[in-house]
Amino acid sequence: MASDDDVTKVLEVVGEAISIDPLDIQDDESWKFLGLSGLLASATASDLKSQIGLDIRPDDFDKYPTVGEFKAFLKRGPSAAQTRTNGNGSLPKTATPHPPEPINPWEGVPKPKVPLSIILQGDPAVSKKVVFLFPDGSGAGTAYGTLPKIGNDVCIVGLNSPFLRQAEDFTCSIERMARLWIDEVRKLQPKGKAYILGGWSAGGYYAFEVAKLLTEAGEKIDQMIMIDSPCRLLYEALPAQVVGELTRKGLMGAVGGKKAPEWLVQHFTSTVYSVDKYMPTPLPKDKVPRKVNFVWVKEGLVKSVSESGLDVDMSVKVTRFLLEPRGDLKTEGWEQLLPGAKYRFDYMTGNHFQITQPFHADSLGRVLQKVTA
Predict the structure, then answer these.
(1) Largest CB tally within 10 Å, which of 105, 146, 209, 314?
(2) Nearest to 173 by CA among 255, 275, 104, 73
(3) Of all residues in the chain, what percent are helix, strand and coil, respectively (each to 5)?
(4) What is the distance between the alpha carbons of residues 111 and 353, in angstroms, rounded to a whole number?
C-alpha cells in the first residue's frame, strides 16, 4: 500500500519520463493520451522499482488506464490489484466515462472572447453555395482566411472555437462542441439549402458531429470536405508528449520562424484531450451526404524522424501520420462512418500543419475550387 508521499514520488518519476510537470497530470487523463505506453511504460516501471522500491509492472498502466485509477491502485497495494478480475482470471476492460452533459450545451461555458463565425468570402444570403469550415486543434476558423477566392457564387464561413483565447475552460467533448456551434451554422445557412460542411484535422470530427445533429433535425447534408482529417476509428489521439516535442522543435503552429503562440498550444492540447475521449458512431445510411471529399497532404513534418531529434514513440499510428511522408491516402476509416457516399480524393502541398499557410493555402484553394464547382 502506497502512501500519499509515495504517490507523489510516482508522479514525479512518470512526469520526468513523459516530459510533463507532475502537477499538470490530471486524474481523468489516460496514460495512452499522455504518451506512456510500450517501451516507455516498461522503462518507467523499471525506474519506479529502482528509485522508489515499488513493484510496478508495465501492464499495470494498461490495467489501470487513467491516472486516477492508477493512483487508487497504488493506494490499495498490488495485492488488492490481483483480485480485480472478472472471475475468470482476466481483468475487466475500463474506460474513462464522459461526464453527463447538460441539456443546455452553454451551461457553465464562459462567454466566447471571439465571434463564433466569420464570413471569409462571399455572402451567405446570395451565394449558391455556403461552405462551413471547422477549425483544427488551434480553434481558429480565421486560419482559412489565407484561402484564395474559391468562386463567385461560393461563400466561405470559418467557425471559431468558443474557447479560443480561454483554453483553460475547454473541457467539452467533441459532441458538445458541435452543439455549441449548431445554432451559429443554422443562422447563416439559407433556408431550404442542403449543407456543405468541412474541416481540417479535428475540424473533420466537428463537421461530422454537426452533420449528425443537422440530419437528426431533418436537415440535409449535400457534401462534406475532410481536410487531412484522420478517422478516429483508426487513429489515436495525439499523445500529449508528442505535442510537447513538436512545440519544443517549433514544428507545430510555427510560422516564419516564430514559435506557436501559447494560446494555440493550450487550445491544441485541450483539443487532443477531447479527441482522446471521442469515439464516433456512423451516420445512418439514408442521412449520409451525397458527396464526401478527402483532401490529403503527402509530406511529413520531418524528412527523417531519427535525424530530427524528436523523442517520440513511432508505434503510435497518428504520430507516424504526422511525422512521416505518405502515399495517396484514401478514406482511412471514414467509409465506416459515412457509408455509401460518393468519395473523391485530392492531394495538396505541404505537411499537416502548413495547410493554411501561404503558398500551401493556394494549393488547398485550387482543390476547393474544383470540389465546389
Answers:
(1) 209
(2) 275
(3) 40, 15, 45
(4) 28
CA distances from 83 to 7, 67, 79, 86, 140 (A): 21, 20, 7, 9, 48
Number of H helices, E strands in the chain: 13, 7
3-state DSSP call for residue 157? Answer: strand
Parallel/antiparallel/unpaired status of strands 221-227 and 195-200: parallel
**Alpha carbon of residue 261 to chain centroid:** 19
DSSP code string of 236-279: PPPPHHHHHHHHHTT-SS-BTTBPPPHHHHHHHHHHHHHHHT--
Of the candidates 207, 287, 275, 179, the one whose C-alpha atom is nearest the C-alpha of residue 236 is 275
Q: Which of 97, 87, 79 is nearest to 30 (CA)?
A: 97
- Look at residue 156 and tell me whether its pLDDT is greater than 80: yes
Q: Is 317 helix (H, G, I), strand (E, B) or coil?
A: helix
What distance in Å separates the CA atoms of residue 297 and residue 347, rounded to the nearest whole number?
6
Read off the pLDDT band of 3 (50, 70, 90): confident
Alpha carbon 26 to chain centroid distance? 18
Predicted confidence (pLDDT) per residue in 15-61, tens digit:
888 878 888 888 888 887 787 877 678 778 888 888 888 888 888 88
At 100 the pLDDT is 75
Domains along the chain with CATH numbers: 4-82 (1.10.1200.10), 117-371 (3.40.50.1820)
Contact of 121 with 144, CB cutoff 8 Å: no
Cα→Cα distances 160→32, 51, 149, 200, 289, Å: 28, 46, 20, 13, 23
Q: How far is CA 237 from the centre of its chain?
A: 6
CB 227 within 8 A of CB 156: no
Sheet holding 129-134, edge to edge: 117-121, 154-159, 129-134, 195-200, 221-227, 291-297, 342-348
